[in-house]
Amino acid sequence: PPVIRLQDYTAPAYRLRHVEMVFDLDPESTLVTTTMAVTRLAGMEVPLELDGDRDMALVSVWLDNRELPDGRYELTEESLTLRDLPEEFELQIQTSINPKANTKLEGLYQSNGMFCTQCEAEGFRRITFFPDRPDVMTTYRVTIRAPKADYPVLLSNGNNVENGDLPDGRHYAVWDDPFPKPSYLFALVAGDLAMMEDRFTTMGDRDVTLRIFVEHGNESRCAYAMDSLIRSMKWDEERFGLEYDLDIFNIVAVSDFNMGAMENKSLNIFNAKYILADPETATDADFALVEGIVAHEYFHNWTGNRVTCRDWFQLSLKEGLTVFRDQEFSGDQRSHAVQRIEDVRMLRARQFPEDAGPLSHPVRPDSYIEINNFYTATVYEKGAEVIRMMHSILGEDGFQRGMKLYFERHDGQAVTCDDFTAAMSDANDMDLSHFKLWYSQSGTPLVTVSEHYDETAKTFRIRVRQETRPTPGQEKKQPLYIPLRTALIGQDGQDLSCRFDGVEAREHVLTLTKAEQDFVFEGVGEKPILSINRGFSAPVILKSDAGHPEKAFQMAHDADPFNRWNAGQDYGVSLILEMVETLQNGGKPDVDPAFLDAMGRIARDQAIDPAFKALALTLPSEDYVAEQMQVVDVEAIHGAREHLRRAIGTAHRDQFQHLYETHRLEDGRFDPGAEAAGHRALRSVALGYLGSADGDTAAPVLKSHFDQADNMTDAMAALRYLTDMDVPERASCLTAFEERWKGNQQVMDKWFGIQAMSARQNTLDDVRGLMEHPAFTMKNPNRVRSLIGAFCIGNPLHFHVQDGSGYDFLAEQVIALDKINPQVAARLMGPLGQWRRFDSGHQEKMKAAISHVLESGELSKDVYEIASKSLA
Ligand code: HT7
Ligand code: ZN
Fold this sequence. Notes:
- The chain is an alpha+beta fold.
- Among the domains are: 4-192, tricorn interacting facor f3 domain (Immunoglobulin-like), CATH 2.60.40; 308-440, Neutral Protease Domain 2 (Neutral Protease, domain 2); 446-538, Aminopeptidase N, middle-beta domain (Immunoglobulin-like, Sandwich); 744-872, Alpha Horseshoe (Zincin-like fold).
- Helix content is 40%, strand content 21%.
- The chain is built from 26 helices and 33 strands.
- Strands 6-5-9-3-2-12-15-14 form an eight-stranded mixed β-sheet, with no helix packed on it. Strands 17-18-19-21-20 form a five-stranded mixed β-sheet, covered by helices on one side. It has a four-stranded antiparallel β-sheet with strand order 10-11-16-13, with no helix packed on it.
- A hairpin with a 4-residue loop joins strand 25 and strand 26.
- Helix 3 packs antiparallel against helix 4 (336-355), helix 4 crosses helix 9 (561-584) and helix 23 packs antiparallel against helix 24.
- The chain starts with a strand and ends with a helix.
- 50% of the residues are buried.
- The model has no long low-confidence stretch (mean pLDDT 98).
- It binds (3S)-3-amino-4-(1H-indol-3-yl)butanoic acid (HT7) and zinc ion (ZN).
């Protein structure tokens, strides 16, 4: 398949003045009539090439009201080309599509009997022939016709300007969107849907109607999403001065959806999982996701829709910036410390491995085969870190000045990441040219710090080195511009005031720009403890001289909550790695009593916020430990981590019992807010340690926690620990859960997921068995992710089992799924690409599984790209 390259970008030769579309909806044969008012741009004597997918049939082509014969245009499997066109003309194209057969869930498809669309990135070309590229923006007027009884609700972008009845029980609606938009933001929904309505008055006094459409029976489960939307609208006005621009904002929740949600202009479409939430069916983590994703899609109205991307290489222009905005929103709504820790945990778990593997690419990639494969943690999460660094370099005021200039310059345009940094740079008179390397250079920098205290001179000198290892296609790396928020902590646990660069302060920003640099702090009266990269001010891997005592000290005292938490993680990782080595040598690992003391101090510290305490008491994940190993040994990691958990649970059993009892919330109305969620999180962590300490004898306690749970967070906490155990309570709780929730697909996904991630023997057999469950289908992406994805990504212990059966299972599922939904199939491949991290026995089996996929017959571009790059 062809490789698309950034360097080959050329501007469009034709402009669309306006587009009118008519949809005659029918599940198996929908007729789409698209009329485009087109202008050929001056000096562009080139043919008009329209994108179109092979799954769509061309019915007719009309130029200025005259039907064109076959020979007047060229039709291939992926395009329609017209030559010798006048300077201005009207082009009408009729296509016929089969939404019911559309299992790819791109373009127009059916989900539980309703029609819906997904056009980003290149789904519009599965609806009609069109210049399906983000730099072609135009206004749309859309007429939808459908049988009224089956599809009473007809929605598209913009304002609903006309409705009426038609013969034969059909009806129609006309929608007009006054804002020019690229085709990827087009949306249409038709169905028999329930609706919840609210209102929001903007800062400019615009009265906006807010509606959430869901399948009947779910209307009572959208209150939290609506509340999140209203808070997002308010927050965007207060923090960014950005106001909503239409009189209506619609959200539709659908069951079959490839990703989380989609920001179509004024008609956001969501995976129902990220809209529907009530205490009985959603965990606290689900509530937080609903809030964050509703906000993210809403924020795209300005960062993505009003100003969009020139081409798909610029995807991070809208995604990195919008993730940064949603992270800031969630931090403001909840807790900045907890939010930052969770965001960094996610970055380390998903983006760091991606950047160290065969699929590593820059935030602004240079090339792709299938753009769907580039909706990655690098483009989203690392992209957000790049924006966050700009924010910390420029400060809140400077950053907002840059945003203001960005909108002044580019509202209504399709632009590049360079345009964004130019606005930031010009608004602040600051040269960001070195900083911009973060967009084009891939790989995670390794920053190494060594320290020296001079007691006589009262100086503290640190030598900082940076190195980024080669990544595919980038052998040579240059030093990046790395801002490191830093403080020196005194023996009393307080930040010391000291001089750096002529400035006396308790915290400084060190700017690393070279491969190696020295930084000297003056006026340092005692040997300090270094607290560097506070708040994770730069997305780097940091190695320092600090030993276990310094880490324990930071765990107890660091004023920066991120570094306080991080010190515990570093300490935990280093202990687990030591224990792994002992296990590998056939020994019995010891547990460092100082670490147990440090964890005990945290457990007892009454001044710590419960949500933070829950995070600080949680050991680094098995994946994160694996990241630190040259050759990953999943069994030893699991064994060592469990051993450490047991030791902590046993050492502080009484304290965990105390936390479990005292953080019980008074009975009454469930509060989804951050504070109450923090108590539940801490109680769950305490329950887990009690389970680790008591082993199988904890089963009755876990069962009673499950039986008494009046919310999904508590129920899942008990079930999570029980599913790892071989006790009768396991089956009884799983069966009770299934009986209660078998009618709710969203909740059944949790049931699938928890079993797929079990550490018990024979989990793969269980997963294969669950694929036969009546609630499971390969056609629904949520089901696939919750069972197959959870096993292959969330269960390293069994996925990497010695005989390679986990790998063969994944290859088999990818091959089967590629015929149904290539986008989701390609995403499943990820874990196999990590083969270089394992011993030769595992490597051979992982590579064999990838080869098996590659040799299995005709593959989609999506799966081909991931599989071939993974092997390279
Ligand atoms: N901009 C959207 C990304 C997206 C997507 C969403 C649903 C299905 C397929 C999709 N392809 C790309 C979501 C977002 O980042 O806001
Ligand atoms: Zn987004």
